[in-house]
Design goal:
The chain has helices spanning 36-52, 103-119, 121-125, 131-146, 157-175, 179-186; strands at residues 12-13, 19-20, 22-25, 28-31, 63-64, 77-78, 81-82, 84-85, 88-91, 94-97. It has 187 residues and is an alpha+beta fold. The strands form 5 sheets. Strands 1-2 form a two-stranded antiparallel ribbon. Strands 3-4 form a two-stranded antiparallel sheet. The protein has a two-stranded parallel ribbon with strand order 5-8. The longest helix is centred in the C-terminal third of the chain and has 19 residues, at 157-175. The chain is elongated, with a radius of gyration of 23 Å.
Length: 187
């Protein structure tokens, strides 16, 4: 990758004089650029460097995402064709959106946590497990899944309310509090 980004002005301005060119994790690479033509240039260089070590860029697995005002971004070509542009993709478990909002990521995290919660239904209904064990399991398995990478989310009242509703609903289910219980208490 270092040979691919050998120009000092590749990437996006990170600090006053530094440029962030790519994010690498295992066999995943995210190329960051401010201009479309530079993206094509970096992709071409990456493809050439990869070929020297008998690796190639998979057209099926590789996607492009533009954060731009233009309705039709410039296609990015590789040897096997053009890369497909997407509105969002998942990178290291987080959903990245072209409009920069975190709604898709939050909804994905909560859906995953809700699926885990439903799979443990017999645990929540168990009369042999103590409330402490149930709450510990809830914290370790459900809450950690729901808020994974939440440090990257902007904190708004709407997001906090969404997380609170999810949390309160789950706690009510663990405690066996139903809608019927609320209605009886009101009368």
């Amino acid at each position: 990758m270092r040979r691919t980004v050998d120009k000092s002005k590749y990437g996006i301005i990170w600090q006053k004089w530094n440029y962030l060119t790519d994010l690498d994790f295992a066999d995943d690479i995210v190329i960051l650029v401010e201009e479309e033509n530079v993206c094509q240039e970096m992709t071409t260089k990456l493809e050439k460097q990869s070929a020297q070590v008998e690796m190639n860029i998979s057209q099926e697995k590789t996607k492009a995402m533009g954060i731009t005002q233009r309705s039709s971004p410039q296609p990015i070509a590789i040897a096997k064709g053009n890369l497909k542009y997407v509105e969002r993709f998942t990178y290291l478990g987080s959903v990245i959106s072209s409009v920069g909002d975190v709604d898709a990521d939050i909804n994905t995290r909560l859906a995953k946590a809700a699926a885990v919660f439903r799979r443990l239904d017999n645990v929540w209904q168990s009369s042999t497990l103590s409330l402490k064990i149930k709450l510990d399991l809830y914290t370790y398995l459900i809450v950690s899944t729901a808020i994974y990478a939440s440090e990257t989310w902007k904190s708004t009242a709407r997001i906090c309310q969404q997380l609170d509703v999810f949390h309160q609903h789950n706690l009510q289910k663990i405690l066996g509090i139903t809608w019927k219980y609320h209605m009886e208490e009101l009368s």
